[in-house]
Design goal:
Helix content of chain B: 10-25%
Order of helices and strands of chain A: HHHHHHHHHHHEHHEHH
Shape of chain B: elongated
Largest interface: A-B, 34 and 36 residues
Mean pLDDT of chain B: 81
Strand order of the largest sheet of chain A: 1-2
Radius of gyration of chain B: 26 Å
Helix content of chain A: 25-40%
Structural class of chain B: alpha+beta
Radius of gyration of chain A: 25 Å
Low-confidence stretches of chain A: none
Oligomer: heterodimer
Shape of chain A: elongated
Number of strands of chain B: 11
Largest sheet of chain A: 2 strands, antiparallel
């Protein structure tokens, strides 16, 4: 029996029509109830009250909500006198015009840093700071770069003198009287304890010797001023919250009227992929209004040359720090839940780094904790295959290394959709917000 | 139809060709096979363990779970509202099941202390454990067969299926509380 040509043709034409119908990009996307619920969890709350659902945390900082402390902190943030050479301020790397990052792979302070500088916008919602989570509060994190020889290269006695000489009135209004030793002209000008037992540089030894010569009471007084510097800077950073992005405006309209054109079809397709918990599973880590679960995950990026092992070492540093929530310079040493219940010693923490926010991700290239990915598409391509760099050429058994990524297995056009969506997370510019700019000097 | 005489034109795709062949070779047995497979899949849905849903933010719900060997029942009462990425506590109440009226290690609540209650858990599908190290608060005896304590420091950092295992080593038994965190 011969089959007629017209029968074949009609089947082929039917298939072509069905396929083309699916390709119609002008068709409005439908959102299921589950998808709408998921989108709602990512939404920034009311723009008039951005702290409403974003919960800032700063355990042990009694002035975190004090406006005067935030103002002092803003002045300190932009002041290059808080450095060894008088040229490095927090804003040298956390630049307002670059979403408080610097768009460099690693950064230049007094030396070259080991890690990529992340954004500070919204960081006040994070209970753990630094890529390896070695600080348990925003105020104790601020102290790290100040005494890091490749960042500010300062020391706590020098910084106490800066407060005494330039910020005495503002400091004393918030924290009470400064130590009398700072007004003694014979009091040492530069000193700090040795922070890294492997550091044998002449300068560190000199500073450590000068610190060691101080009576314990003087050390504690200096430490208290130092801690208060951190608390002021943290109070300022708490004011740097993300403003609603185009995604937030789209999601608000979608919740109200079930459809919105504030995102293009390509961007909406990207959002659908982003919240897909079967395929991309982005929400495993990048969930909540800050697009991060604030946890530590292994992305398998090759470690930087400093052989940093991530959270497994970082959590131990935080637990030992004299400036952590449980220490004598904390204002709430009895209330340290994150420190109390921190996971330790698990192989899931080795090479685990903090999940960064995706808000303003379009402005904070390059990417990952060592800045090794120059573009968003490079990151997405890596995630698409999810072949960990850590294991390549190492001969390590794969079952001994915990790894958190699953391949996305997306087509190239889908990766472009995902990238387009991520670029909608940039905050609207906050030109009228004075906190986002250098302060008017006292 | 005789498959050997089937000579489609070369421009028809192999997929269409295969579909056409299957359609002309359909038999009762293929229909029956697909019906049986569908029935098996549907029945699996019905008899599979129903999973408890925790829809965040979740407030004021309690859960009762039986231990594996039936030695005790656990009542779980989350304190406050369960939200993603936030530390919170659960109140757990163990009620020992009396087996034949005799007090043995498995139903003697006096033996339970914070050293022999062990909490583990995680997301088996993702291959990771709990993101924090919860601990057991003071054990309070409520009745001869009932004790209560806080499981402190729980945190869930992802949506999806979770398990919390509470093992009581003196009872030689364990409760596996399976639930799904949903938006």
């Amino acid at each position: 029996m011969r089959i007629k040509v017209s029968s074949y043709l009609s089947v082929v034409i039917l298939l072509i029509i069905l396929t083309l119908a699916g390709c119609n990009t002008k068709q409005e996307l439908r959102w299921s109830e589950r998808e709408l619920n998921l989108i709602n969890t990512l939404l920034l709350p009311d723009p008039n009250n951005p702290l409403e659902r974003l919960t800032p945390v700063d355990h042990g900082n009694g002035v975190s909500m004090d406006r005067k402390a935030a103002s002092l902190g803003q002045h300190l943030f932009f002041d290059p006198r808080l450095s060894g050479n008088g040229k490095v301020s927090c804003s040298s790397c956390h630049q307002p015009s670059r979403a408080f990052s610097d768009n460099e792979v690693v950064s230049q302070g007094m030396g070259v840093t080991a890690m990529h500088t992340p954004t500070i916008i919204g960081v006040a919602t994070s209970p753990w700071l630094f890529w390896d989570g070695r600080a348990d509060s925003l105020w104790s994190q601020a102290l790290g770069p100040l005494e890091n020889s490749v960042e500010h290269g300062a020391n706590r006695v020098q910084l106490a003198h800066v407060i005494f000489n330039h910020y005495r009135k503002q400091y004393q209004e918030i924290f009470g009287p400064l130590p009398k030793i700072l007004s003694d002209p014979n009091f040492v000008k530069l000193a700090m304890p040795l922070l890294d037992v492997n550091d044998a540089s002449a300068q560190s030894i000199t500073l450590a010797a000068a610190w060691h010569d101080l009576p314990q009471d003087h050390q504690r007084q200096i430490n208290r001023v130092f801690a208060n510097i951190g608390k002021s800077i943290a109070a300022y950073e708490r004011m740097l919250m993300p403003t609603p992005s185009r995604f937030d405006r789209f999601a608000t309209e979608l919740a109200r009227q079930q459809h919105s054109n504030l995102l293009t079809a390509q961007e909406q397709a990207g959002l659908k992929l982003f919240i897909n918990d079967k395929q991309t599973q982005c929400l495993r880590c990048h969930n909540g209004p800050m697009f991060t679960n604030h946890d530590f995950q292994v992305t398998g990026i090759r470690p930087n040359p400093a052989k940093n092992t991530g959270r497994i070492a970082g959590v131990e540093v935080a637990l030992r720090s004299e400036f952590n929530c449980a220490g004598i310079y904390s204002d709430t040493p009895q209330n340290c839940p994150e420190l109390t219940f921190a996971k330790r010693g698990s192989r899931e923490l080795k090479f685990a780094y903090k999940v960064p926010t995706l808000r303003n991700i379009g402005q904070t290239a390059p990417y990952m904790h060592n800045g090794s990915f120059s573009s968003l598409m490079a990151v997405l391509t890596y995630y698409n295959q999810a072949q960990p760099q850590l294991l390549q050429g190492s001969g390590q058994r794969t079952d001994l290394v915990h790894y958190d990524l699953q391949p996305l297995r997306l087509m190239p056009h889908q990766l472009k959709q995902l990238e387009a969506f991520l670029l909608t997370l940039n905050s609207a510019p906050a030109d009228t917000n004075a906190w986002f700019k250098p302060p008017v000097l006292y | 139809m005789n498959i050997r005489s089937f000579q489609p034109k070369s421009f028809v795709s192999p997929v269409v060709q295969q579909l056409y062949i299957w359609w002309n070779w359909r038999t009762p047995s293929r229909y029956v096979g697909s019906v049986i497979i569908s029935a098996l899949l549907l029945s699996y849905q019905c008899v599979a363990q129903p999973i408890i849903h925790i829809n965040t933010p979740q407030a004021a719900v309690s859960y009762r779970v039986m231990s594996d060997n039936g030695s005790f029942e656990l009542l779980i009462e989350p304190q406050g509202v369960i939200r993603l990425n936030q530390l919170h506590h659960w109140r757990a109440t163990i009620t020992a099941v009396e087996l034949g009226g005799a007090i043995t290690a498995s139903n003697d609540v006096n033996l339970i202390n914070s050293d022999n209650v062990i909490v583990t858990g995680g997301m088996p599908k993702h291959g990771h454990g709990l993101p924090t190290q919860p601990n057991i608060g003071t054990i309070v005896k409520l009745r001869d067969n009932k004790v209560s304590f806080l499981i402190q420091g729980l945190k869930f950092q992802m949506f999806g299926p979770w398990v919390i295992n509470i093992s009581v080593t003196t009872a030689g038994d364990i409760v596996r509380f399976n639930f799904e965190i949903r938006p």
